[in-house]
Amino acid sequence: MIIFNIIKKNLQKYKTITLGIFFIITTSNTKTVIKIIPAANCVYKNIIFDLGNVCITTSKTSTFFTVFPQICLNPSLFYYLFNNLNIKEQYFELLDEIPSSSEITIYHEGKPLPFIMNDWLNGTYNSNTIKPIIFNAIDESDNPTSIKNLFKAITEYMFTPQSFAQSQVFLEPMINLAMQFKEQGYKIYILSNWDEESFEIIQQKHKVFALFDGIIISGKEKLLKPQSEIYGRLLNKYKLKSKECLFIDDERQNTEEATNLGITSIVHKDFATTCKELMKLGIIKI
After folding, report:
1. Topology of the domain covering 33-58+170-285
2. Domain coordinates of the chain in residue numbers?
3. For residue 153, what are the CA distances in angstroms to 86, 93, 249?
4. Cα–Cα distance between 242 and 236 in angstroms, integer?
5. Which residues pair with 215 in a beta bridge?
6. Residue 106's closest CA among 194, 25, 3?
7. Integer CA distances (angstroms), 178 to 20, 31, 36, 69, 248, in order
8. Which of 148, 161, 209, 278 has the fewest CB within 10 Å, making it most exposed?
9. What value does the mean pLDDT of the chain take?
10. Rounded CA separation 133/123 (Å)
11. From CA 113, how far away is CA 109, in angstroms rounded?
12. Helix or strand or coil: residue 143?
């Protein structure tokens, strides 16, 4: 029975992957199917993009090669994984127990992040100072040794700038969309909660960032979305009028704060739904 359940799960996984590949193929050639209204004819002149889950995502391959070696070294992990242990949820619960100086709630995939991660994203801690704190919390936890080892591997992966930067891949349809906005006379900007160390590596590695007219990263500014100050930092630094800005972010709390400041905002779910919202605003035609 167990083996059949495994086969069933894998078939479902491959079905999902196949559909995902089909979607990427059908949307990757966005330059030929989307018509963007020139900036001269549009009320919006500035398009502001979030990064995580909008323009960039974490490679599932990198995640697999972080977890799989630990399973090989600690076969007892099979028991936890097959009993539907939510590794991410349990890891974040452990991080939630670590004292933090941050009082700002920030969100990832609709859920609050542990406050200790806020301290990392706003530059209070860097990779060298946050990892020992987390390792100590892991050692003091009641988790079995196999889970502790897995959590340490995840910590090393997430909070080492080189490995984390290496794991990030572009969401090509959204990058293509940003480039098309640029071609049509819009100014394009980045506003993202991201640690300064790994972003610098990503920025140096990918020339596409040179095409953006401005970049505001939380780790450098010592501010976090949805704090109103970080939006103000973007507007003031680049002398932007809020009514001429459009902001695309995957977290509703972030877009709500932008809207409160007079910035029109779209909650990004995927490329297709964002295009629909852009059509409603009269910015693009398909």
Report:
1. Rossmann fold (3.40.50)
2. 33-58+170-285, 60-166
3. 16, 16, 29
4. 10
5. 190
6. 194
7. 21, 11, 11, 37, 11
8. 209
9. 86
10. 15
11. 9
12. coil
pLDDT digits (tens, 9 = 90+) for 225-280: 999 999 999 999 999 999 999 999 999 999 999 999 999 999 999 999 999 999 99
Give, as one character, the DSSP assignment of residue 38. Answer: P
Those residues of the chain that have pLDDT short of 70 are 1-33, 63-68, 70-71, 76, 78-85
Q: Encoding tokens for residue 57? A: 């995502």
Nearest partner of 49 among 267, 202, 247, judged by Cα: 247
Q: What angle do CA 78, 83, 86 make, to 5 degrees?
A: 90
Q: Do the Cβ atoms of 250 and 268 come closer than 8 Å?
A: yes
State how far the Cα of 55 lies from the Cα of 249, in Å rounded to an integer. Answer: 10
Residue 125 contacts residue 101 (beta carbons within 8 Å): no
Locate the DSSP E strands across the chain.
35-36, 46-49, 56-58, 107-108, 111-112, 168-170, 187-192, 214-217, 245-249, 264-267, 284-285
Dihedral angle, C-alpha 85, 88, 91, 93, nearest 10 °: -90
